[in-house]
């Protein structure tokens, strides 16, 4: 039976299983249900909402082999069986159960008792007196919804309160009954199949003794009004007025029958498994059909609707009334290998072969005429008849020919045509002939010449095997390497490629047809497939980037339908709507009307979920522990008749960036998912490419472990904060300690510098002063030695001045900018006074409190001293100017004089630009300034003299 979702349920001796079109899944059942089974083990019954029903005994006291006493009914609801006790069944051996559309249940007992259960109330009907033989009731409904029962020879209708016997006497000792969609129920006796019209029993078809009521175990009416009967040990039959057709099955013992949503018939057998029967949409013409060869290269239909085949070594074959007529062998035509057939404009048929070109006679089709003017054309790969009646042929290796009123013209390089091995012809709306060649070149006729048509973006497309023009002028080209080229009718041809990357099963496409529904059918080296019309047009316009193809495969009982396309036309659409394809297995006739996909997208359901390969209960909201390494979700796209046509896509919001499309398989597998909330979605599409309007969703939440929870994250954050705080504290403490240690070292150095300065000043200074006094005293006491004592006095004074400089440089109390400026200015005035040079000072009134290192002070002083000394010794100046400028970032000292200038120096042309005298003073200045990362400049002063500039960056000099 089918449930409300579309699953097919099958009851077996081992339990219940359900089928979604691709796989069977066992269903958990209570032990008593598994032992008891169903009334008919192959097909379980259902109540009105489509829920499964099974008989059972709450105490489990059942016989595993034969039906026994029951006291209730199991209903399957929400993945489980729920038992409902029925006291009226106690002690009864129930052999039949039946459900009306409104949910009313009927039970038939072995002794003929009938029990009705409706709205929680039970009503019991005892069998009529005098009834003999088997008394097992069978139930059915008519077109009006009335319930009928058959008990042996009794047939009655329930009017709501009582049973009304059928007022017709029939000579049968046993009657079977079946429901009907319209009119009265079906009745089967040992001799006939009949139907109640309301007034009488109408004979539908006579039955043999082995097909009669005694052997019938199942009967259903299909959607077309035909009745199917399954017999015990004699097989399955389909009954129509006056005809009983035997239908082959895997086993002749038919237990039950069911019809699916697509009109397929399912037959449960005793030992032969489950059989699916569908209308046969195809017919294959091969050796088994009487042909001499399985491979027919081309096919065409003449003006009278007769199909012609070029059956290679088998010659020419006609197909009339679905039967093959080997006309070439039957009429003893000259034996040849047929290559191509094509209907001529006058009603005859063109035939090409290895020995020449022939044409049948329009008046006498059995007569074959040889066209002598075409005798030179031995290998013809493709033929075509234009609307004006011209017959075109490909001429190997690099020409094409036209036959017009017995006049033959060959087109080659001189006529603008240089293609090789022509495979396809087509004619556009203007009557121009288009030609496709094996070297990928496309040509179009212009008058009596041909011109090359470029195919931009279609390089390496291979051979152009078939051409087809659409009503809007779009050209479809079947190729050997790039699938299908779609050429839009623009001024500049624009080519769009439809290949395996866009959804085709194979890139070697040999022919293109359309059926009466507008669907496109393609023959290829890997089989025959179709694409919905709207899909192809949307792809051609760029609205979609891929298509959904439906391949004729195992669902249709067809495999290895390879179409070579070496000769054309290798496919043809007949006027009755049938499509013909030349394949390696034979010539295939397809009825597209029996492959309809108008039912819309199939319903999609979630069937199972597992964690690390352990099945889990399927609920409306799934919670997954974060320790799960693998999550698998199984789903079903419910199409029982053609599951291979279904395309499924799924997506896990929060994990997948886009839809994941599956052409096979019905499951999605995910690795360990991070904690959080997700939404699993799944959709399905049939051959039309239309997706489900409402996707099936499953909320999923991944539960974090305790160390992944929010409060654990708070603890982690707090711990991390404490660690960072502790690290920062330790780092700051160590930094402070190192700073204090550095300050302590600096203070020790300063104390040592102070002690040294004091010792030099007190001890050495006092000694030098004492020497100066002694030399002055000695001058008075020894006049004759006065000059020598004067030299000693001058030397002592010089040493005293040098000592004073050293004391100033060493003394840490002088490590500031103010001390430097004061000392340099004081030294300049004293120095120039002794040299009789007037000195002017330009110093800021207020100096910033900037501390300097002793080394920086000393080097700056020595640089200034050397500059002053150069003025006194070499400049011949009468005036000098010392300017000090200070800002937040730099110190600039400028020393100028009015002397001779740099150019007057004897060595002004020295290689070293800083060496303007024979000494090393200026070179020393430069070295000291570079040590301070400063710059110095020596330039001529406007008006005469020299200008010396020192520029020092203060932050680099500070303590």
UniProtKB/TrEMBL annotation:
GO terms assigned for molecular function: phosphorelay sensor kinase activity; protein dimerization activity
SMART domains: HATPase_c (SM00387)
GO cellular component: membrane
Matches recorded under CDD domains: HATPase_UhpB-NarQ-NarX-like
PROSITE patterns for this protein: HIS_KIN
Keywords: Kinase, Membrane, Transferase, Transmembrane, Transmembrane helix, Two-component regulatory system
Protein name stated in the entry: Histidine kinase domain-containing protein
Source organism of the structure: Nibricoccus aquaticus
Keyword field contains Transmembrane helix: yes
Domain Histidine kinase: start-end pairs: 759-956
One Pfam family hit: HATPase_c
InterPro entries named in the record: HATPase_C_sf (IPR036890), HATPase_dom (IPR003594), His_kinase_dom (IPR005467), Ig-like_fold (IPR013783), Reg_prop (IPR011110), Sensor_HK_TwoCompSys (IPR050482), Sig_transdc_His_kin_sub3_dim/P (IPR011712), WD40/YVTN_repeat-like_dom_sf (IPR015943)
TM ranges: 714-732
């Amino acid at each position: 039976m089918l449930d409300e979702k579309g699953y097919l349920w099958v009851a077996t001796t081992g339990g219940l299983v359900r089928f979604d079109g691709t796989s069977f899944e066992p269903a958990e059942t209570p032990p008593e249900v598994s032992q008891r089974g169903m009334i008919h083990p192959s097909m379980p019954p259902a109540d009105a909402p489509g829920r499964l029903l099974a008989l059972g005994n709450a105490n489990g006291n059942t016989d595993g082999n034969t039906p026994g006493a029951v006291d209730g009914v199991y209903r399957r609801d929400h993945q489980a069986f729920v038992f409902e006790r029925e006291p009226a069944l106690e002690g009864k051996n129930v052999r039949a159960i039946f459900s009306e559309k409104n949910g009313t249940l009927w039970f038939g007992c072995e002794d003929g008792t009938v029990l009705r259960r409706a709205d929680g109330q039970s009503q019991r009907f005892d069998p009529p007196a005098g009834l003999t033989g088997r008394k097992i009731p069978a139930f059915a409904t008519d077109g009006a919804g009335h319930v009928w029962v058959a008990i042996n020879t009794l047939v009655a209708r329930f009017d709501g309160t009582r049973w009304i016997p059928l007022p017709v006497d029939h000579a049968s000792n046993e009657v079977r009954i079946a429901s009907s969609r319209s009119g009265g129920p079906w009745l089967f006796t040992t001799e006939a199949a009949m139907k109640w019209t309301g007034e009488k029993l109408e004979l539908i078809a006579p039955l043999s003794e082995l097909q009669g009521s005694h052997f019938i175990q199942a009967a259903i009416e299909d959607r077309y009004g035909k009745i199917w009967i399954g017999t015990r040990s004699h097989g399955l039959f389909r009954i129509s007025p006056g005809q009983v057709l035997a239908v082959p099955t895997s086993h002749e013992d038919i237990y039950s029958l069911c019809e699916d949503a697509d009109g397929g018939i399912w037959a449960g057998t005793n030992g032969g498994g489950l059989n699916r029967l569908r209308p046969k949409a195809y017919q294959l013409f091969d050796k088994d059909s009487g042909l001499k060869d399985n491979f027919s290269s081309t096919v065409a239909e003449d003006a009278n609707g007769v199909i012609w085949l070029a059956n290679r070594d088998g010659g020419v074959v006609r197909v009339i009334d679905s039967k093959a007529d080997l006309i070439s062998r039957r009429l003893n035509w000259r034996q040849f290998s047929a290559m191509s057939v094509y209907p001529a404009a006058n009603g005859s048929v063109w035939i090409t072969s290895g020995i020449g070109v022939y044409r049948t006679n329009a008046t006498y089709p059995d007569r074959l005429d040889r066209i002598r003017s075409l005798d030179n054309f031995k290998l013809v790969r493709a033929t075509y008849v234009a609307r004006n009646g011209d017959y075109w042929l490909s001429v190997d290796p690099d020409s094409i020919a036209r036959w017009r009123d017995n006049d033959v013209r060959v087109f080659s390089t001189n006529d603008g045509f240089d293609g090789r091995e022509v495979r396809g012809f087509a004619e556009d709306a203007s009557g121009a002939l288009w030609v496709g060649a094996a070297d990928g070149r496309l040509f179009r006729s212009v008058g009596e010449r041909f011109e090359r048509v470029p195919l931009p973006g279609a390089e390496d497309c291979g051979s152009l095997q078939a051409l087809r023009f659409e009503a809007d002028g779009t050209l479809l080209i079947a190729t050997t390497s790039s699938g299908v080229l779609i050429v839009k009718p623009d001024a500049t041809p624009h080519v769009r490629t439809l290949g395996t990357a866009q959804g085709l099963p194979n890139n070697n496409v040999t022919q293109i047809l359309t059926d009466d529904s507008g669907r496109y059918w393609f023959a290829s080296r890997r089989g025959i497939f179709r694409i919905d019309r709207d899909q192809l047009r949307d792809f051609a316009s760029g609205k979609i980037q891929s298509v959904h193809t439906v391949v004729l495969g195992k669902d249709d009982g067809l495999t290895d339908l390879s179409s070579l396309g070496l000769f054309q036309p290798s496919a043809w659409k007949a006027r009755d709507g049938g499509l013909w394809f030349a394949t390696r297995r034979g010539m295939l006739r397809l009825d597209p009307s029996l492959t309809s996909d108008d039912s819309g997208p199939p319903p999609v359901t979630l069937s199972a979920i597992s964690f690390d390969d352990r099945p889990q209960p399927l609920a409306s909201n799934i919670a997954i522990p974060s320790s799960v390494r693998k999550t698998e979700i199984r789903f079903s796209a419910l199409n029982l008749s053609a599951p291979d046509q279904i395309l499924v896509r799924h997506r896990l919001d929060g994990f997948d960036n886009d839809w994941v499309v599956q052409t096979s398989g019905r499951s999605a597998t995910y690795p360990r998912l991070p904690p959080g909330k997700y939404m699993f979605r799944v959709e399905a599409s049939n051959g039309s490419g239309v997706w489900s309007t409402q996707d099936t969703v499953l909320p999923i939440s991944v539960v974090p472990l305790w160390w992944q929870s929010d409060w654990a994250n708070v603890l982690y954050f707090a711990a991390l904060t404490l660690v960072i705080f502790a690290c920062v504290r330790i780092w700051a403490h160590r930094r402070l300690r190192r700073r204090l240690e550095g300050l302590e070292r600096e203070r020790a150095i300063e104390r040592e510098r102070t002690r040294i300065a004091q010792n030099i000043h007190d001890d050495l200074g006092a000694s030098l002063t004492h020497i100066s006094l002694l030399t002055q005293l000695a001058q008075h006491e020894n006049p004759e030695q006065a000059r020598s004592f004067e030299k000693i006095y001058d030397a002592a004074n010089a040493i005293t001045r040098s000592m004073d400089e050293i004391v100033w440089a060493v003394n840490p109390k002088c490590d500031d900018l103010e001390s430097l400026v004061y000392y340099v200015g004081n030294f300049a005035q004293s120095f120039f006074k002794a040299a009789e040079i007037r000195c002017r000072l330009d110093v800021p009134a207020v100096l910033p409190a900037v501390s300097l290192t002793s080394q920086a002070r000393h080097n700056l002083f020595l640089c200034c001293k050397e500059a002053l000394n150069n003025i006194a010794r070499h400049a011949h100046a009468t005036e000098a100017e010392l300017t000090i400028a200070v800002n937040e970032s730099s110190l600039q000292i400028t020393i100028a004089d009015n002397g001779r200038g740099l150019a007057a120096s004897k060595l002004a042309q020295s290689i070293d630009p800083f060496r303007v005298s024979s000494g090393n003073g200026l070179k020393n200045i430069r070295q000291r300034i570079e040590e301070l990362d400063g710059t110095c400049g020596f330039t001529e002063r406007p008006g005469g003299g020299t200008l010396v500039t020192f520029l020092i960056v203060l932050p680099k000099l500070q303590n």
